[in-house]
Amino acid sequence: MPMQIAHTRAEVRAMLGERRPGLVPTMGALHDGHLALIERSVAENPLTVVSVFVNPAQFNDPGDLERYPRDLERDTALIASAGADLLFAPPVSEIYPPGFDTTVRVGDLAGRWEGVHRPGHFRGVATVVTILLNLVRPARAYFGEKDYQQLQVIRRMHADLALPGEIVGCPTVREADGLALSSRNVRLSPEARRTARAIPRALAAVVAAAEAGETDARRLEAIGRAELHAPDIEVDYLAVVDGETLAPIARLNPGSRLLVAAEVGGVRLIDNAAVDPGEGEGA
User: Fold this and answer.
1) Known catalytic residue at 7
2) Which of 131, 166, 198, 271 is the most exposed place for a label (fewest CB within 10 A)?
3) How is domain 183-273 classified at the CATH fold level?
């Protein structure tokens, strides 16, 4: 059956009825990371809904919103080829109708790291995801671990507000050179792209040190920063944190996470990796 397309809240509800699909929320500009989420949903659910909505509420920089790539025709073809059953592509006025005056704010989790550098970002994310979860009422909703803080914010919101379904985190998909797939990658010049490879190298260096037995978070952070020490890289943060609370930690614990954000060639990139205590001789 050909993929259906809905543009309004009423159309989504009418097309789904009482069915509980898998949901993959996106902002378009699809890449293989998004397709991996869609394919997993297709494998795990009898019905899959993909949303494409460039959410203005999560952009604190109007210029960043203006530059965000949009190609709904291309995205529609990719979504259909990945096996989705329904595309929800609403206009802004359908998600935020006239008079809309409600937002969802998550506390401490949203106030750290990206929350500091992008004020209001997670409020916009939490609000639109809440709307989508309530509209679609999925059995499962799929999010990539590349945006790890976003994933944790959504998990907290989902639990606190008793929203429907299950939140499923999926591993980061990387390009051949190790760079995490992102819609922002297309904005990197060839030179900046080569420079940006230092980010996955920093992750790998920290993970290797942890596996060798280093557990001191400050030493691990120093190892990561050494890989990013270059004139064309401006590091916003590089931190070893608790994997659930995202609070800085002094020593590794099970589930620790390394979070990185850096600007390369005028393009801001984020990445992360699990950093668990290894079995080597700790320092």
Assistant:
1) no
2) 166
3) Pantoate--beta-alanine Ligase; Chain: A,domain 2 (3.30.1300)
